[in-house]
Amino acid sequence: MTTILIVDDEREIVDLVSIHLTREGFSTIKAANGNEALTLIDEVWPDLAIVDVMMPNMDGFTLTKKLRQYDIPVLLLTAKGSIEDKESGFQAGSDDYVVKPFEPKELIYRVRAILRRYNKDTTPLIQVGSLRIDRERYEVRIDDVTYMLPLKEFELLTTLATRPGRVFERDFLMERVWGLDFSGDDQTLNVHIKRLREKLHAATNEVKIMTVRGVGYKLEVRKP
Amino acid sequence: MTTILIVDDEREIVDLVSIHLTREGFSTIKAANGNEALTLIDEVWPDLAIVDVMMPNMDGFTLTKKLRQYDIPVLLLTAKGSIEDKESGFQAGSDDYVVKPFEPKELIYRVRAILRRYNKDTTPLIQVGSLRIDRERYEVRIDDVTYMLPLKEFELLTTLATRPGRVFERDFLMERVWGLDFSGDDQTLNVHIKRLREKLHAATNEVKIMTVRGVGYKLEVRKP
DNA sequence: ACTATTTCATATAACTTTCACGAATGGAAA
DNA sequence: TTTCCATTCGTGAAAGTTATATGAAATAGT
């Protein structure tokens, strides 16, 4: 399971962030200051740390530098989007930053983005049965036939294929493929799924996109 | 693998630079001062050294001169962009310099630029099917016919050819061929791709530049 | 003066989204 | 169970959008 360390002297913020993260399926550990954080990471090695810039004693930048030595990616929380903060944040080695007050959704989005950047999610090759996705080439190969899909269809398929069998909620897919700020029609996803299905079915019957009514879609693999 | 030596008495800087470099796929060795650096290079011969100017005992300039004797390219880190530093840096034989505080992106960019200049990051000869690129002579040969391409087209082709099949994002290509600070028209890339295509198609049909809409371009090789 | 590079204007095709309607689904009521 | 109903989803076609291609002209560079 993915564990995220939250460091802030404001208890409220820590709890708030924790709530949203656990709701998304992450496990969290909390620390009120830099020293506490550093003692904690010896026991539990987090996959990512969310750190407030403004803290007594050890500030966020200093902590970030230390965390980077352990190769733990860092997401900074800054009070204002001042350019100074931005620059020195990246300089300290943080991977991204979120300005307080933040939208929970945006925080989650950035967390996922960082994790994606570091995790197995970056795997250039995904294989599900006879379906192979080459993210570097933007190609899909099925039984030695190579297909080039339009970008949205490609990303949709890629997302579904990262965890075959798991149901991806419609919202999740929209956010993943279209980004946070898509305000379009709900039918858009349907149409893209439809076209993706057409192509998939024509190519193979081993892999199939299943609808989970009221929830979303999943990729089902028939094992021969 | 490309190995980079980092020399600075400030531990934080060394670590920070190291993090960004390893993230980009380089391997690093660290030294806290000039003497340490000089003993290290006997064991591990680095492809490049990043050296801080301000160091106790042996300063960056002195170390640079010694490193140049071993034919190791040097990137200097200077505290302020003062002209004095700049001049004496190049005088000492450094290949480039970066002013602290620096943007990670810029550091990486300059590192790559130096490595490219020394042909350390790639072979001087690239071969893709019947297409051969001689980076030393700046020549392209296809089926025993030698072509001289304009610089931008040459670099574009070279970049694409280093990893045939892989999609290079437009941003990446722009940065690679035009540099970090190009603020020109978005169409520029299109036009260059177009002219490169014309020449390629006229010369061979084995190699082709493919468009991946919304992403970038890739070089596709038809295997007979 | 010549080539290389960039810009501009316009075309075109690729992709994306919307729309309208029909089919499937699942829960509630009969 | 069966029927009804509301909702969700599938589908074909049309409309819309945008990225890229292209021809030609303007700059920049040697």
How is the secondary structure organized here?
The structure is a homodimer of 224-residue chains.
Chain A (H helix, E strand, L loop, with lengths): L2 E5 L3 H13 L3 E5 L2 H10 L4 E5 L7 H10 L4 E5 L4 H10 L3 E4 L4 H15 L6 E4 L2 E4 L4 E4 L2 E3 L3 H12 L5 E2 H9 L8 H17 L3 E6 L3 E6 L3
Chain B binds a DNA duplex (30 and 30 nucleotides) through helix 6 and helix 8.
Report what the structure shows.
2 copies of one chain form a homodimer. With 224 residues, the first copy, chain A, is α/β, with parallel strands linked by helices. Chain A folds into 2 domains: 3-120, Response regulator (Rossmann fold); 124-221, Arc Repressor Mutant, subunit A (Orthogonal Bundle), CATH 1.10.10.10. Helices cover 43% and strands 24% of the residues of chain A. The first copy, chain A, is built from 8 helices and 12 strands. In chain A, the strands form 3 sheets. Chain A has a 5-stranded parallel β-sheet with strand order 2-1-3-4-5, with helices on both faces. A 4-stranded antiparallel β-sheet of chain A has the order 6-7-8-9, covered by helices on one side. In chain A, strands 10-12-11 form a 3-stranded antiparallel β-sheet. Chain A is elongated. The A-B interface holds A 65, 68-69, 71, 87-88, 90-93, 136-138, 148, 150-151 and B 12, 15-16, 19-20, 101-104, 165-167, 212-215, 218.
